Amino acid sequence: METEMRGRLLMVRDLAGYGLYGLMLTLACAASALQPAIAADPLEELLGRTSQQVASFLDLISEVNCAEHVTQEKLNDSGKTVEKEESSFDYLILLSNGGGELDLVESRIAANPGRSVPKDKSPLLVSNGFSTLFLIFHPYYSSAFQFSAAGEETVGGESLARVHFQHIPGMRSPAALAVRGREYPLDISGEAWIDPHTGVIRKIAAGIDSGMEDVGLRSLHCEINYAPIFFHDSPEPHWLPAQAMVEVQSLHQHWRNTHSFSQYKHFSVNTKEQIAQP
Asked: What is d(CA 77, CA 256) in angstroms, rounded to the nearest whole number?
């Protein structure tokens, strides 16, 4: 039985009047597809391990919450900050099943709900969901990308495999730009830094190779870093998002958002029914 997953990745409002941008993530996968294919070479073996890690992350994702701090910046032509906003949230990704579909939804509860924003303050970039960009390695989307080995790099004393990914034009894309009710699939490309032994993703850098100036988008770049998180009920660390940076340029605006994730907590709900003896 096939299961569908849907979630929103990014929302951008262009202050120059190009309307509402929405970068959307859609995922539909068969449960049987979570099993890695038989590897034909070292890269395929690595991609198989990474696919397993992504599946394991989806099992964990609705059982953790954390604190998220967001820094929104508007930049001038020289790259200097001209407007800045700081916000804090209680952050949770919800994975629910309804009507045969799984929905991946980010939940944010403001840590300072009583805070007010001046009415004359212009809105900044709103970015959501970039911490889940690893889904491009999920079996449903991996067939829509070309993967190639990009060598190794030592990070923090560890040798990590670098894997380049390039979306194949015309194939399904995990990201689409929504402008005035119309969706434009994005040909995203980039690199991932992966533990060659476990398949755990340590970092992803991605963007679009060429602008979409006909709809007001010049460039999009994001970088996500993952860090080891230890929970009391597991001796092994879980590599979860630590920071996501998103930079977007339209024809007239330049934004940069930084999402920092900390204070992870693992929770689970267990129910037990006990029938009383008559």
From this structure: 13
